[in-house]
């Protein structure tokens, strides 16, 4: 099957946008991801799907922990930056929770330890057990639909 057809179909599923972050040794790394889902309430689990070509894959595997920052509609540039779509390297000021970096100003931050990792084709599904959560009271989400950013509020 043609990959473009697959991506066009998957693009019809509107999602929010997150930045996954981790700290591996003393290196902080971030990556934009929309393949994020809540999995279980007891225990509290979430999942992210990370491509094997992404630097993030080895970083999470090694660190055994990661955080998910759910972006607001004011953070489109942050999403583009952590997707490698803005080429100049920037100095990012992360917030910190329990020794995990997160994107400040996000709608929510979810701090996890890797509970299970399942290779699936050219990605690995990292299931995270939630260790801590921060929720911002106000703000609207950044959305992604048909390969484009959009606002839903
Ligand atoms: P890199 O490409 O090396 O890093 C990304 C960018 O972040 C670079 O510009 C880098 O300089 C910068 N950066 C990273 N850490 C820091 C730091 N500490 N300080 C300053 N700058 C830093 N891919 C998936 O695997 N799964 C998904 O679910 C997914 N969803 C996506 C959703 C959207 C809307 C978009 C646009 C892309 C998505 N991607 C997804 C693709 C993914 O974001 C890119 O392929 C990304 O470039 C891969 O990241 P990487 O770990 O290889 O890091
Ligand atoms: P697009 O048209 O490529 O994306 C539409 C949808 O297709 C995405 O929401 C996702 O569900 C799916 N998709 C795209 N690439 C995929 C991949 N490599 N593996 C699994 N599913 C994928 O949108 P775009 O604006 O051209 O995307 C920008 C870049 O970000 C592209 O290079 C794309 O491959 C990448 N991306 C990767 C993923 C992912 O790995 N899960 C998700 C979204 C975007």
Automatic annotation (TrEMBL):
Keywords: Oxidoreductase
Recorded superkingdom: Bacteria
Keyword check for Secreted: no
InterPro entries named among the record's database cross-references: Flavin_Rdtase-like_dom (IPR002563), NADH-dep_flavin_reductase (IPR050268), Split_barrel_FMN-bd (IPR012349)
Nucleotide-binding listed as a keyword: no
Pfam families referenced in this protein's UniProt entry, alphabetically: Flavin_Reduct
A single BP term in Gene Ontology: pyrimidine nucleobase catabolic process
One function term, GO molecular function aspect: FMN binding
Positions of the Flavin reductase like domain: 10-151
Protein name, per record: Flavin reductase family protein
Source organism per UniProt: Exobacillus caeni
């Amino acid at each position: 099957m043609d990959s473009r057809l697959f991506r066009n179909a998957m693009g019809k599923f509107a999602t929010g946008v997150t930045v996954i972050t981790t700290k591996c040794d003393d290196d902080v790394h971030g990556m934009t991801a929309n393949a994020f889902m809540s999995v279980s309430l007891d225990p509290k689990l979430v999942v992210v799907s990370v491509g094997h070509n992404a630097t993030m894959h080895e970083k999470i595997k090694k660190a055994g922990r990661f955080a998910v920052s759910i972006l607001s509609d004011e953070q489109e540039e942050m999403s583009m930056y952590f997707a490698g779509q803005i080429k100049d390297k920037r100095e990012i000021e992360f917030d910190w929770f329990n020794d995990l970096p997160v994107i400040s100003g996000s709608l929510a931050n979810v701090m996890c330890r890797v509970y299970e990792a399942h290779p699936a084709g050219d990605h690995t599904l990292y299931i995270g057990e939630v260790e801590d959560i921060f929720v911002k009271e106000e703000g609207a989400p950044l959305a992604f639909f048909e390969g484009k950013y959009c606002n839903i509020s």
